[in-house]
Amino acid sequence: MNRIIKIGMDVHSSNYTLCAMEPTIGSEDRIFGEIKTAPDYKAVIAFIESLKKKLGPNDTYSIECGYEAGCLGYTLYNQLTKAGIKCVILAPTTMLTERGKRVKTDKRDACLIAKCLCYGGYHPVYIPTAKDNAVKEYIRMRDDHKLALKELKQRILAFTLRHGHQYTGGKWTVKHIAWLRKLELDPVCRETLDEYLTSYDEQEEKIRRFDNRIEEIASEADYKEKVGKLRCFLGIRTHTALSIIVEIGDFERFAKGNTFGAFLGLAPGERSSSDNINRLSISKAGNAHLRCLLVEAARGICKGHIGHKSKELRARQNGQSAEIIAYADRANTRLRSRYYRMIRRGKKKNVAVTAVARELACFVWGMMTGNISKASLAGTSVPAASQG
User: Fold this and answer.
1) What is the pLDDT of residue 376?
2) How far apart are CA 356 and CA 297, in angstroms?
């Protein structure tokens, strides 16, 4: 007899709750066992071994574990997979939920995960390669320092304003920094500002060092070609290009560009009934980090003249094939034109920028999957990557 056992795992840093379930047709699912263990993959293996003893000696069976994406990242998945145990990570936003129940416990959550595994009520999380994951962590560390620098700048500006000084020119330019260093303040306040500025210099130096390291990583054989292609777009430089590559990994898992845009949470929602049509804001589901990067890239696109190519963009495109450059130029012109057209029609700036970011995601998908030749050379009005 071939039996299928699904083990739902509600995992935390302090403990794991496991629920083993066997799906049955026409009757209630059979629960083989429930247990709370220490947060160790070896405890999961021990639980599986105890299950095997309960199963009939003449039965054949397959066992699969699963847990919801969260604080453990890919660690438990890698440990169990290395031990020869099939495991999946469930994307939280795609899981089936029990409606009407207001009681939430670890035991119920583990049972729900087991049911999702039994009946396919979920989408699995993509598992990146070890190198992609390591590079992703490095880039996110750099971005954390960039955020800390932004907060430090805000503290410095607030400090000078509290003491009656406000700079009227461009902030954080060479002249602004010189002005901060020459401010006449109370001796203790002057010392306080000097300490702030020392921290500012240290953070700036760290970020420069991180950016140089990211440039080195991007020039490695695994990433050089892909990064070079993405840098042909307006608003996408090395940092953003490498982030997209390591965060997504396999672009072929998305059937079309619109699907990729929806994965990033850039697809608009809708709540319509009968003749009433109600458009909602973007879903903001999926990868928030990449969504922010693409929106910032879109802000870079939504400036300047339509069709204009700066010296920097020409330098980034240097060495790429004519087909790739033509596709990127077509995207740059289309996106910038669309932004100005939306603004003329009265759209709010942020709405227009977000719409450009969504279509930019479609073009990125086209570039990374090779769906560019017809769009860039045939002279069609709509690129293949953005067709729905």
Assistant:
1) 37
2) 9
What is the pLDDT at residue 55?
76
**Run of H or E including 383:** none
Higher pLDDT, 286 or 27: 286
Q: CA 292 to CA 206: how far, in whole Å?
A: 22
Q: How far is residue 362's CA from residue 336's CA, in Å, rounded to a whole number?
A: 15
Per DSSP bridges, beta strands 268-270 and 16-22 are unpaired
pTM (two decimals): 0.86
What is the per-residue pLDDT for 385? 42
Rounded Cα distance between 353 and 130, Å, is: 34
Q: Which two tokens stand for residue 346?
A: 């009265």
**CA–CA distance, 19 with 94 (Å, rounded to integer):** 20
Under 8 Å between Cβ of 107 and 92: no
* Distance of alpha carbon 18 from alpha carbon 16, whole angstroms: 6
CATH assignment at residue 51:
3.30.420.40
Write out the residue range of the structural domain in which residue 283 sits: 224-386
